[in-house]
């Protein structure tokens, strides 16, 4: 019989990290809900608001499923493996869609920074699509490989996922560079509070998500397979 739980401590670590992530997300949701009501409710529905709602609420569903999945996978035993597989697949789709919506918000922000230049929009859209296609291709290859691999374990991702996060790091570094370039090239003399806040907070946010993607890439590539899902949720 295949041992799906060779490293119980690693499984527990991944599960508890998922629970901690869920708590942090819920805490952030609660303390920012009043700002959401003030600035987004009642506004027209467009690509920006749709992307915001998806990136805001879909992760709440994702972390709920992921927490249940992690706890069941750690304590439920091998008998629950078949039952947990659809939950795992749902978590992957939700995670991807939420991340995609968040990246769309970054693209809209940078498009506005660049003066809504149509040529810039075409270039950055082509770059974004090429990156997304490359990531989806790698994910699809991994999915096919895992579907024919009877030893594939729950709470683990394929090592090739490090390439996906590497591409994501590259994408986010490009967006960060474009933001910094526009700030110091065009708006360096613009010191109004709103401009300073928008650029500062945007740069801090992109630095944080780039760092997380980079750490995820390293964790998946360097650590044992039991830890590969440590930061996925």
Description:
The protein is mainly α. It has helices at 8-39, 47-75, 81-113, 118-147, 161-185, 193-222. The two termini are 29 Å apart. The model is unreliable at 1-5 and 148-152 (pLDDT under 50).
The ordered H/E elements are HHHHHH
Could you give the distance between the termini? 29 Å
The percentage helix is: over 70%
SS element count, helices:
6
Number of domains: 1
InterPro entries: DUF6533 (IPR045340)
Transmembrane segments: 14-33, 54-71, 93-113, 120-141, 161-181, 202-223
Pfam families: DUF6533
Protein name: DUF6533 domain-containing protein
Tell me briefly what this model is.
The protein has 233 residues and is mainly α. The protein contains six helices and no strands.
Index terms:
233 residues; mainly alpha; 0% strand; disordered N terminus
Q: Mind sketching the topology for me?
A:
Blueprint: H1 8-39, H2 47-75, H3 81-113, H4 118-147, H5 161-185, H6 193-222
């Amino acid at each position: 019989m295949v041992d799906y739980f060779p490293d119980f401590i690693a499984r527990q670590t991944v599960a508890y990290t998922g629970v901690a992530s869920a708590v942090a997300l819920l805490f952030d949701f609660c303390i920012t809900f009043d700002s959401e009501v003030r600035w987004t409710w009642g506004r027209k529905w467009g690509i920006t608001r749709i992307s915001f709602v998806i990136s805001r609420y879909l992760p709440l569903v994702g972390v709920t499923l992921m927490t249940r999945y992690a706890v069941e996978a750690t304590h439920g035993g091998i008998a629950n493996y078949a039952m947990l597989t659809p939950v795992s697949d749902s978590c992957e789709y939700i995670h991807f869609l939420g991340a995609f919506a968040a990246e769309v918000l970054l693209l809209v922000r940078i498009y506005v920074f660049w003066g809504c230049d149509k040529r810039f929009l075409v270039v950055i859209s082509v770059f974004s699509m090429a990156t997304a296609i490359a990531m989806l291709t790698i994910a699809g290859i991994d999915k096919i490989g895992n579907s024919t691999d009877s030893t594939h374990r729950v709470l683990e991702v394929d090592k090739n996922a490090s390439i996906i996060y590497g591409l994501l790091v590259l994408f986010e570094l490009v967006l960060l560079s474009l933001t910094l370039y526009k700030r110091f090239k065009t708006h360096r003399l613009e010191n109004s509070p709103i401009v300073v806040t928008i650029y500062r907070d945007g740069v801090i946010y992109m630095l944080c998500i780039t760092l997380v993607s980079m750490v995820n890439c390293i964790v998946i590539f360097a650590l044992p397979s039991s830890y590969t899902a440590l930061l996925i949720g």
